[in-house]
Amino acid sequence: MQTATILFALPFAGVVVLMAVSVTRAIHADWEDERRRDRELRRKMRSLIRE
Fold first, then answer.
1. Residue 45 and residue 31: Cα distance in Å, rounded?
2. First-to-last CA distance in the chain?
3. Distance CA 13, CA 8 (A)
4. Could you give the CA distance from residue 49 to residue 39 in angstroms, rounded to a whole number?
5. Which of 2, 9, 20, 37 has its CA 20 to 30 Å from the CA of residue 27?
6. Which domain holds residue 19?
7. 3-class secondary structure for the chain?
8. Taken in order 9, 10, 15, 17, is the CA torsion positive or negative?
9. d(CA 18, CA 10)
10. Total structural domains in the chain?
11. Tens of pLDDT along 1-49?
């Protein structure tokens, strides 16, 4: 009975691992976008101050 339960749960464990990887990649991409927007905003603010 335990073996059947473990074998039945393995596909779900795989799905959970794939979801964790997907969420990690999405958070990283969002973080990079935020850093890029922040750099652009700082660059614009510096150009306004210099003018």
1. 21
2. 76
3. 10
4. 15
5. 9
6. 1-51
7. CHHHHHHHHHHHHHHHHHHHHHHHHHHHHHHHHHHHHHHHHHHHHHHHHHC
8. positive
9. 12
10. 1
11. 888 898 999 999 999 999 999 999 999 999 999 999 999 999 999 999 9
pTM exceeding 0.70: no
As given in the structure block, the two tokens for residue 33 are 């976008």
Residue count of the chain: 51
The CA–CA distances, whole Å, from 18 to 12, 21, 25, 43, 46 equal 10, 5, 11, 38, 42
